[in-house]
Amino acid sequence: MHATADVVVLDSLQLLSDVKIFVPGPRERRLIKCVLVAMQDDQKLFLSAIRQGALGYVLQEASAAEVVNSVRTVAQGEAVCPSQYPRVLFDYFAIQTASAPNSRVHAQVCLTRREQQLVPLIDRGMTNKEIANQLNLSEQTVKNHVHRILHKVGVQDRLSVFEAFQAQTLGLH
Prior knowledge:
This protein is mainly alpha-helical. The protein has helices spanning 13-18, 43-51, 64-75, 85-98, 103-109, 113-123, 128-135, 139-153, 161-169; strands at residues 7-10, 22-23, 29-30, 33-39, 56-59. The longest helix has 15 residues, at 139-153.
């Protein structure tokens, strides 16, 4: 018999990046629900966990009862985080909305609208071929866009693209 888990509980953001959470496509589907436990009280780690698909973020000092309740909450389809972190999400969303792909971002980072479309897809770990299929482009066109993005945001590899783009967009570099 093949059993599936409702929720996966991890204690490392690195482990989360090793787990395939989404099925890429026109509308991403979540394969598994993930709760990170025993985590540091760190806003950047929290936002990174959310970007990677975690639905739960439980701090190191949480009680066993809080961990169990968090897992149950995520299993029921909800998300859970420490009480001080919804503000982090609201602030992050406001910044993202204010700096959505538009002429301001283009002026700051000089990425074309198409290059800006590729940044979140690259951040999800999609291959050039997967991006090409999703956007109805040739793989070579995607490869050219990725090369230009790396050059424009000043990084050597795909893993650093999203954070470098965010830093430039927000004026943090």
